[in-house]
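Catalogue entry: protein

Sequence with per-residue tokens
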Amino acid sequence: MERTVERDKLRARLTKIEERIEAACKRAGRSREEVKIVAVTKYVDADAIGDLLSVGIDHIGENRAQDALPKMERYGAEGTWHFIGHLQTNKVKDVVGKFAYIHSLDRLSLAEAINKRAEALGIIVPCFVQINVSGEETKFGLRPNDVLAFFAETSNMKHIKVVGLMTMAPHAENPEETRAVFRELRQWRDRVGQLPYDNVDARELSMGMSGDFEVAIEEGATYIRLGSVLVKPEEHE
């Protein structure tokens, strides 16, 4: 009975979110099918993963491998799992081969570790390269001035496939203040798309969270990472 109530509440929240997504897509002249919701689930338990899957959310985003593994034991085969947190090099073995996507490739040493682990497993890992567009000291990501050199340095890594770019905008009371950050990441995506590297097919943009996802969609987001607005109202992502 308790789970039924929780799922009804979740379904109601999702309906409101869908209305906002569709409106943002309409303003931008985009199709709703271009935008995927990644549920940020670091604050919820495995039962909540089941709730999300039951209402049609199948992209699950986790920040820490050790927190994700118990949830994946129950539901790993039912969803598409995204690693969206900062990834320490010594944790690569816990992530590569378990998550479908890594959203936080942000340095050469991490790329080398992912590539080495993926080679040992005989797989190719889809990754988003994280760019610190805003320049905030508290955020991870490549500095814009280092982006092109990073792609050149990783261009021979055959077990990494760059499928897109990721960024986190500064917290702002007015979401409109984040627009320039999202627009710049889209511009970077267009530049990266011209690079002549076989392991780069950067069409996706992972950007936008609970407080600013509508602006991110208007600027081209294809994956939006929703935590508090979806799975844990009144909590922070």
User: Anything to note?
Assistant: The chain is about 40% helix and 20% strand. Strands lie at 36-40, 59-62, 80-83, 101-105, 125-130, 160-166, 200-206, 223-226. The chain has one domain: 2-226.
